[in-house]
Write a structure and sequence with these properties.
The complex is a heterodimer. Chain A is mainly α. Chain A is built from eight helices and no strands. Chain A has helices at 2-23, 27-47, 51-74, 80-113, 133-144, 146-167, 179-184, 187-190. In chain A, helix 1 packs antiparallel against helix 2 (27-47) and helix 2 (27-47) runs antiparallel to helix 3. Chain A starts with a helix and ends in a 14-residue tail after the last helix. Chain B is mostly helical. Helix content of chain B is 67%, strand content 0%. The longest helix of chain B is centred in the N-terminal third of the chain and has 38 residues, at 11-48. The chains are: A mainly alpha, B mainly alpha. The A-B interface holds A 1-2, 28-29, 32, 35, 42, 51-52, 55-56, 58-59, 62-64, 67-68, 70-71, 74-75, 132-134, 177, 179 and B 11-12, 15-16, 87, 117-119, 122-123, 125-127, 129-130, 132-133, 136-137, 140, 148, 151-152, 155-156, 158-159, 162, 179, 315, 319.
Chain lengths: 204, 347
């Protein structure tokens, strides 16, 4: 009873906030609706017993990715009129994409109704029964799929290096802070005690 | 208790009513302790500045927080005309709610935990990463310069320190072999030399305990890392435009977060509800007493730091997070897993 109630609550909020994400006039509101959608999707994950994925969804998407989205969108200087003009211009493309997604969804459900097929080898290697989510994911990820896992890490590393190469430039004539030299500096190097004679002052 | 309600009200409704009561049993004492902790914070701060602190309302001024709450409750909620009204009011509610959510997985005693889930620590990480939204939304919805700067600072600061907190937690999880909070506490029984119930007693984990304490100061934006509300630069940061209950919700949420971080320090590195030493007579005292003692000790440290350490500069804060804590915690994951491979898993 309560599961069914929770499912319909989460599912309807996901769909509604997904709709509001694209309908909201203000981009910041869009990002906030998106965050609500992520959060409720995590709730759905909990309902199907994938609590590890649910927590990762919240930590990675809500906690990091969406914060950065919000960070960027908040600082945008938004011209609402231009945004609305873009809506009509991009409408055909959007409709085409929607049609493709709808067709794929129908095919997917049709194929599922027709009975599942074993894709690749993973169908032969179900997760160990009785293991907790984290153990099951860990066992598969670090044994069978280790190369995929490592190469995903490598791709991310390359992306990170690329971003740094694109944005980092050597600038001349700047004086960056040198923490070590600041810490190394002693009072004797920077100050001196004098006994100035009245009327003569000190030379700097 | 769940069984009792389920036998009288049926499975679904019994579970619902029992959990509602348990949630209130946690949330109300947390709110009460937040009020008391605010009083102690001001008292400790005053003592270190050779002042008296609140001493008018009630004996020793102990009712000061309640007087403040009553005053704030009667004030008018002012909403700036340029503000985004819905989000402006939503932000303090988010902060307050999120501050209470994490307490669901905190073990107060052997079996005294609302949700004994196997991803407990991840749940806390997930919920604490939500905390930033209250501040960011408040800063943006206020439609004012200083709150906005504060929101940008808060977003960058919390993301930076969540990274190092995540890695520090991984060392503890590696040692325990579980994300469950109760398992983490149980694994500390007799951890040090067979009788000290502390992970912090372990030489490999002690640096992580210190770093976690500092990171939790930064994560809750407490002094010396309170750049989000640096009054000399940003008026009051993201709270500048807030008044009355909306302001009070921020305030309560902030202190509830501080208490949660103190609890996490106690649970992860200093034995949680276990007595400090694995000695039978000490177990006669209920575990919740030990936990509260440890939380109070950590809260004292938080207040002590606030009263004595000058505020960091923002670039120093970022440097500490990314250039000091992140490499060290990564190195420590390497060290801890190497040590465990050598000793426990025998490779």
């Amino acid at each position: 009873m309560i599961q069914i109630f929770a499912f319909y609550l989460f599912a309807s909020v996901v769909i509604a906030s997904g709709a509001f994400t694209i309908l909201a006039r203000n981009p910041v509101h869009s990002v906030l609706w998106l965050i609500l959608a992520f959060f409720n999707a995590a709730g759905l994950m909990v309902l199907i017993g994938a609590e590890f994925i649910a927590m990762l969804l919240v930590i990675v998407y809500v906690g990091a990715v969406a914060v950065l989205f919000l960070f960027v969108v908040m600082m945008l200087d938004i011209d609402f009129a231009e945004l609305r003009g873009g809506f009509m211009k991009n409408l055909p493309l959007g409709l085409a994409l929607a049609a493709v997604f709808l067709a794929e969804l129908i095919f997917g459900i049709g194929a599922y109704q027709a009975g599942n097929i074993a894709l690749g080898e993973h169908a032969l290697n179900p997760a160990r029964m009785g293991a907790s989510n984290i153990q099951a994911v860990g066992e598969l990820l670090y044994t069978r799929y280790i190369f995929l896992f490592e190469s995903a890490g490598l791709v991310l590393l390359v992306a990170m290096v690329g971003a740094i190469v694109l944005t980092h430039r050597k600038r001349v004539g700047v004086r960056p802070q040198n923490i070590a030299s600041q810490v190394r500096r002693r009072p004797e190097d920077a100050t001196r005690n004098t006994q100035p004679v009245v009327g003569e002052g000190v030379d700097l | 208790m769940t069984e009792f309600f389920q036998s009288t009200l049926g499975m679904g409704w019994g579970w619902f009513v029992a959990n509602l009561i348990l949630i209130l049993l946690i949330a109300l004492p947390v709110m009460l302790s937040v009020a008391i902790v605010i009083y102690f914070d001001r008292k400790i701060w005053a003592a270190m500045a050779l002042r008296r602190g609140p001493n008018v309302v009630g004996p020793f001024g102990i009712l000061q927080s309640f007087a403040d709450a009553a005053k704030v409750f009667l004030q008018e909620t002012i909403i700036p005309s340029g503000a985004n009204k819905g989000l402006f009011l939503l932000a303090p509610i988010i902060t307050f709610t999120v501050a209470l959510l994490s307490w669901a997985v905190i073990p107060f005693d052997q079996d005294m935990v609302l949700a004994d889930i196997n991803v407990g620590l991840l749940y806390i990480l997930a919920i604490s990463s939500l905390g930033v939204y209250g501040v960011v939304i408040a800063g943006w919805a206020s439609n004012s310069k200083y709150p906005f700067f504060s929101a940008l600072r808060a977003a960058a600061q919390m993301i930076s320190y969540e990274v190092s907190i995540g890695f520090i937690i991984v060392t503890v999880v590696l040692w325990t072999g579980s994300f469950n909070m109760n398992d983490i506490v149980e694994a500390q029984r007799g951890h040090g030399l067979g009788f000290v119930n502390w992970y912090g007693f372990n030489l490999l984990l002690f640096p992580m305990a210190v770093m976690f304490l500092i990171s939790s100061l930064a994560e809750t934006a407490r002094a010396p890392f309170d750049l989000t509300e640096a009054e000399s630069e940003l008026v009051a940061g993201y709270q500048t435009e807030y008044s009355s209950m909306a302001f009070a919700l921020f305030w309560l949420g902030e202190y509830a977060n501080v208490l949660l971080m103190c609890t996490l320090n106690a649970v992860l590195f200093w034995g949680g509800w276990l007595p400090p030493v694995d000695w039978a007579p000490l177990y006669a005292i209920p575990g919740i007493f030990w936990l509260i003692l440890k939380i109070s000790a950590f809260f004292f440290i938080f207040s002590w730091v606030k009263a004595t350490v000058p505020r960091y500069r923002y670039d120093q804060l970022m440097r500490l997070g990314w250039k000091v804590f992140l490499p060290i915690s990564l190195l420590w994951i390497f060290l801890v897993s190497g040590y465990l491979m050598l000793t426990r898993y025998g490779v």
